[in-house]
Each structure stands twice: as C-alpha cells, then as structure tokens.
Amino acid sequence: MKKAKWWQEIVMYQIYPRSFQDSNNDGIGDILGIISRLDYLKKLGIGGIWLSPVYQSPNDDNGYDISNYEEILSEFGTMAQMELLISEAKKRDIQIIMDLVVNHTSDEHPWFIEARKSVDNPYRDYYIWRKAKSEQEAPNALASAFGGSAWEFDTTSEQYYLHLFSKKQPDLNWENEQLRHAIYQMMNFWIAKGIAGFRMDVIDLIGKIPDQMITSNGPQLHHYLKEMNKATFGDKDLLTVGETWGATPEIAKAYSSPDNHELSMVFQFEHISLDEIPGQSKWDLAPLSIPKLKNVFNKWQVTLENDGWNSLFWNNHDLPRIVSRWGDDGKYRVESAKMLAMILHMMKGTPYIYQGEEIGMTNRVITDIAEVDDIESINFYDERLAQGFSHEEIINAINAKGRDNARTPMQWNQTENAGFTTFKPWIAINPNYKEINVEAALLDKNSIFYTYQALIRLRKMKPIVVFGKFQLIENVAEDIFAYKRTLNDECLLVVANFSKNENRFTLPKHIQKVLLHNYNRELISDSSYTLKPYESFILEL
Ligand code: NOJ
Question: What's the half-sphere exposure (Cβ side, CA atoms, 13 Å) at 180?
C-alpha cells in the first residue's frame, strides 16, 4: 500500500481567532486563548489547525485585509505568543497552518500606501491600475464580491484600482515578478517559524486578466503555483490547501496531482452552492436536493480516486452552520449533526471541522441589520433595499446564508458570555449557549463531540478510511445517501438518512461490526430496515 502523507491521515480544525477564546477580557478572542484550549483540541483528536488570519489588519474584512504579513494584530497578541502557539501545538502533535491572503492586501499595507502616491512609484505595479474614461465610468463591468463595482477611482492619480472584494482590499498584480518574489519571501519567513502549511485564500483569482473579465482560473494560475511551490514549500512536507470557488474536479486534479507540484488539495464549493439558484447570487436560495448532493460528492470522489486529493468540509467562517442548513437545528439537532459528521468523514479526503461544529452549534437569528457585523451582509442589505426588496426578504436571506452565522463566539460553558469572555463580546453570543456548549458536551457520553472524536479515532486506526475506494450505492431511497469504501478484502458501509422522514434500506448479508450508529437500535444482517429521522451508521462488512 502507498504510504500516506501526514495530511491525509489527520483531521483538520479551523479556528476563527476573533471568536474562539478571549484570554485578556477585551471581548475579542486571542492567541493565548487558543493556547489555553489546545488540550481540548487534543482530546478531540485533531492533527492540525487552520488559523484564520492573525496578521496586522485594519479589519475591514476581519483580517482578510492584511496591512503587515509579518506582524501579529495586537488585539490577538504578539509574535512571541504566536511562536508559543506553534510550539505548544506541536507538543500535542498538532500542526499550525496559516491563512495566506495574497490575492489582495489592505489599502493600509505599505505597498499600497506607496503605490497610490504616483504612477511612477516603484510599488505602483504591485497593484492593478487602469486609466479612467471618466470619474463616473469604471474601466469595465467587473463586480466586487461585496457588491458594487470592482474598480475604485483614486483621486491622486485619477486612475482606477481593482478590488474584487472591498475597496479596502486592493488586488495584487501577480504579473509583477518582484511582487511574486516578495510574497514567496514572506511565506518562507513563516515556514522558518515552524508552521506546517498554508490555506490559500481565493487563490484561483491570482491569474486574473481584468481587461478580458477573467477572474478565476486565469491562464497563468498554474504557472504561478508551480513557481510558488518551487520557491517555498515544494521540498518540505507541508499541507497546502487552496480556496478555489471556480474548481471543477478536473481542475482540482491539476492542482492536487503530486506530479504537478502545486498544492496538496483544494476546497471546492460545488456541494455548498447547491442551495443557490444557478447563475444568481449566494443569497438567492434554491430548494435543497439530496439526489443532487449525492451526485456532486460522487463525482468528486470518483474523479480524484487515483490522482489528486479531496478536502472534505461542511462549514467555515464564510458559511452558515451546516446543522441549520442540511440538518435540523430543532428537534433532531443531535441526530442530524452526527449524521452529517459521519457521511462527510468517511469519504476519501482530509476532513476539516470548523470551530463549534463538533458540538453542533447552530445559526443565530437576527431581526435587524444593526445586529450584523459582516461587511458582505451589510452591503447586500443596502443594495437589495435600494432595489426594492423588503426588509423581511433580506433578513431571511442573511439568516440563512450570512457569514456572521459562523462567527458568533465559541460556546464553552453556560456561564455569562458562554465562557468566551467576561467582557462584552465583539459579536453577540448565540442565546442557545446554555444548552449547546463544550462543557455540557463533554459530560454527555452521547454528545455530538464524541461522534467526532470516534470518527477521528477510526481514521487513525483504519487505513481503509484514508485509502479505501469510494463507491456510491445506487437504487436506494432518494433521501438515503449510502456508500461503500473498500480496501483489499475489507469493506465499510456508510448509510445516512438525510431526512426527518423514515426511509427503508435493505441491510447487507454479513454485518461484522457496527462501528458507529447515531441511534441505539439493533441492526440485523439481511433484513429490511426502517431508518429513523437522520439515522446513520457505519458498518464493517
Ligand atoms: C475568502 C475568505 O474566506 C473570506 O472570509 C474573505 O472575505 C475573502 N476570501 C476575501 O479575502
């Protein structure tokens, strides 16, 4: 059997530092707070942390607008504390993966401060500038992901600069070789500190050709990644995962095939985007379809079977809580959260848990835009209101898809502010923290936490979970997602009822062992079985 890479055998855990644990009682999570929770993460069993940005930033987009890549945001701590985090995590066999945001910087980064001074400034070409037709007329119709035009008029030089996100996030010009090498140098600075890899923010945008309206998957993209690989992590054993909204399975293979010397894997979003009306925005909701979900996962599993590698995730800091989206955050919260965990972690790829997912944290509900912090939702609200949508329609969309859903603080216990802080938290805590919190989860041996822990253990114990071939089981009830994993003469069967309706399934002839089950019910070989709401199990055959 092939020897696994370390990043194929582990489960990753994403920390959004602002909302994880406050240690100095200013209402904002910080690095010492993370260190204080490493033993909890060790108990869960994870092998790596993807840390959302902790760099210096004016926080227009919560750290995804970086003004200094080699300094830590003072609200989060110091470089010495960051080094302590890396070493304390390592002591517990946990690797730290940094967020690499290099499609853009903050407009407060010294490169941009220089660049905007004049057209002949040495840093001018680090960014993307175009002559103005007029102050009123942008160079073309490229839109920002946060609403409005992607071009901002700069009064000093009377030219426009490109920003695919907020106007405080000017896009870097990857055609400039000097800029590329400055980025590689910065990456090497972090590698030398002992980090184990990078999650690369919107990396599929760096090869853009704005004049042709090409943003993702530009012609030079893979060339840049190969160059980056060679100049930085290529000869080291690191985990690299690209955020690639525009990836198809074939493109993902190009990124992650070891022969291509680019990345370890990418985050693809096809399963996530299934709740959107195709061709419209993320806010325009389509009904959920289990058959479509099965098809999408099957396609990705099969295409990357022998070459390339999948990442597996339901949640991150940009997405709603999965139990509120594809599960049931009311009556069947516990059952459906366990079901979602089992179906995801048993597929082939590296699973990622987003903080709080392991205790089944849910979306929060807002009624007023004043409760929202996120720039994306605020811009969306203003834009849609101007277009004539009603307040209710817009708030409903934000409740379903808004990014603050995932950003409410981690719920540690049932004391005031959920053990996150003793000060006023930077964003309101989900009021359900008295019921849903880590302390309660650890005390309950049937909690969602222990399902995640058991899944991580299974992966460590059984190479079939890492290497087994995936095979979708066809001809089952529409709401049932079932698949097999096989390796030599071993076989696992994973079955999940994605619905609150009961559904029938014929159990296999020879069940050797029930490895995990979210209901306490007997499974008898070769019988017709009725699955309860969100029931799921993993069998060894
Ligand atoms: C993707 C990040 O995950 C998101 O939070 C951010 O707003 C954009 N990229 C821009 O950096």
Answer: 18
What's the rounded mean pLDDT across residues 61-70?
98
Question: Given the structure tokens 């995801």, which residue do they identify?
Answer: 344
Which residue among the candidates 201, 262, 479, 535 is catalytic per the annotation?
Answer: 201
From 55, 59, 61, 205, give the residue whose CB has the most ligand 1 atoms within 8 Å, as the site to mutate: 61
Q: How far apart are CA 495 and CA 536, in angstroms?
A: 5
Q: State the distance from the centre of ligand 1 to the C-alpha of 469, rounded, in angstroms.
A: 33
CA of 298 to the centre of ligand 1 (A): 27
pLDDT at 1: 55
Q: Which of 243, 270, 404, 535 is catalytic?
A: 243
CA-52 nearest atom, ligand 1: 3
Residue type, 187: M
C-alpha closest to that of 481 among 534, 444, 440, 403: 534
Return all residues near 23 (Cβ < 8 A) that are at least 6 apart: 30, 32, 33, 36
DSSP characters over 120-171: T-TTGGGB-EEE-SBTTB-SS--B-TTSSBSEEEETTTTEEEE-SS-TTSPB
Distance 495 CA to ligand 1 centre (A): 34
Q: How many CB atoms lie within 10 A of CB 408?
A: 25
Quick check: is 284 catalytic?
no
Residues 6 or more apart from 63 whose CB is under 8 A from it? 17, 18, 52, 53, 54, 55, 57, 73, 99
- For tokens 């991150």, the residue is 316
Catalytic residue list contains 243 = yes
Q: Each residue of 415-436: pLDDT tens digit?
A: 999 999 999 999 999 999 999 9
Q: What is the DSSP letter of 54?
A: -
CB-based contact 352:314 (threshold 8 Å): no
Q: What is the layout of strands, in order, in the sheet containing 12-15? A: 265-267, 239-243, 197-200, 95-100, 48-51, 12-15, 350-354, 311-312
Averaged pLDDT, 211-234: 97
Which sign does the torsion angle of CA 454, 460, 464, 467 carry?
A: positive
Span 10-22, mean pLDDT? 98
Residue 325, pLDDT > 90, answer: yes
Q: By alpha-carbon position, which residue is closest to atom 2 of ligand 1?
A: 201
Q: For a substitution probing ligand 1, which of 16, 67, 101 has the most ligand atoms within 8 Å of its CB? A: 101
pLDDT of residue 238: 98
Identify the residue with better confidence: 133 or 65. Answer: 65
pLDDT of residue 2: 63
Q: Within 6 Å (CB) of ligand 1, which residues are found?
A: 61, 64, 101, 165, 201-202, 243, 317-318
The residue whose CB lies within 8 Å of the most ligand 1 atoms, and thus the one to mutate among 162, 165, 266, 268, is 165
